[in-house]
Amino acid sequence: MMVGPQAALLPDGRRLHLQHGPIDLIIEVFGPARQACYDQAIARFETILTGLVAELPALRAPLVPGAAVEGHGFQGPVARRMAAAVAPFKGIFVTPMAAVAGAVADEMLAATIAGHSVPKAYVNNGGDVAFHLQPGQTARSIGAAGPIAIGFCDRPRGLATSGWRGRSHSLGIADAVTVAARDTATADAAATLIANAVDLPGHPGIERLPARHLAPDSDLEDRPVTTGVGPLSAAEIDLALSSGTRLARRLVAKGLIDDAVLHLAGQTRAAAQPLQSPLEQDHADA
Amino acid sequence: MNQMPKPEKIRCDACPVMCYIAEGRTGACDRYANRGGRIIRCDPLTILDRRLAKGDEVKPFLAARWDGARVSGDEVVVSAIGAGTTYPDYKPAPFIVSREIEGADFVTVVTEAIFSYCGVKVKIDTDRHLGAEAATVRADGEAVGHVMTSEYGSQMLSLGGVDHLTGGTKDEGRKTCDALLRLCNRQAVELTIDGGSSVVVEAGAAPIVDGQREVRMRVGCGSATIGMFASQWQGLVDEVVVVDDHITGVVSEHQAGKVIGWPDTGIRILGRKSTPGRYFKVAEPGLGWGGTNIEDPLAILGPWRAAKGAHPGLSLLMVSTTGEHYGYYVLNDALEPEARPMPAALRPSVELIAENCEPSLCTVLFMAGAGGSLRSGVTNNPVRLTRSVHQEATRVTLGGAPAYLWPGGGITVMVDVTGLPDNAFGYVPTPALVAPLEFTLSRAEFRRLGGHDASVRALGDILETGGEYGADTRIVGAGK
Question: Do A1 and B114 touch (CB under 8 A)?
Answer without folding.
Answer: yes
